[in-house]
Amino acid sequence: MYARDLFHDAVKAALQKDGWAITHDPLTIALADGQLQIDLGAERLIAAYKDEQQIAVEIKSFTAPSAISEFHTALGQYLNYRVVLKLKEPNRLLYLGVSVEIYESFFFRQLPQLSLQEYQIKLVIFDPEGEVIVKWIN
């Protein structure tokens, strides 16, 4: 069974405020030996190009005692989801969604910085209380 992240509804509202239409909640990707569920799928029309931009967001709350352990899990999930999206929905960009508090307190450490660069992780930073997107990192 699919378990929603603590900040799921806040991120969904923040994306909608940012102009995104939520198309999947969750985004289910079928594989021959099972399926994966990414927290949210969204898209928005880019008027200048008359084209649609599609994203998937995997939300992580980092509520466990060890932020580094949570990061290992989040990174592994992100990389696996990215491989599957490349196969099944190559036009959809994957983002890891983290709160501004976690971003500022953990993601500036050396290991997260090195990993973000090495694996080209895309981040969406959100404020769960205000339900707004603070920053997109591509």
Overview of this protein structure:
By secondary structure, this protein is an alpha/beta fold. The protein has one domain: 3-Layer(aba) Sandwich (Trna Endonuclease, Chain: A, domain 1), CATH 3.40.1350. The chain has 4 helices and 8 strands, in the order H-E-E-E-E-E-H-E-H-H-E-E. The strands form 2 sheets. The protein has a 6-stranded mixed β-sheet with strand order 1-4-5-6-7-8, sandwiched between helices. It has a two-stranded antiparallel sheet with strand order 2-3. The longest helix has 22 residues, at 67-88. It is globular. The model has no long low-confidence stretch (mean pLDDT 92).
Question: Could you write a compact summary of the structure shown?
Answer:
The protein has 138 residues and is of the alpha/beta class. 35% of the residues lie in helices and 36% in strands. The chain has helices at residues 8-17, 67-88, 100-105, 110-119, and strands spanning 21-24, 27-31, 34-38, 40-46, 51-59, 92-99, 123-127, 132-137.
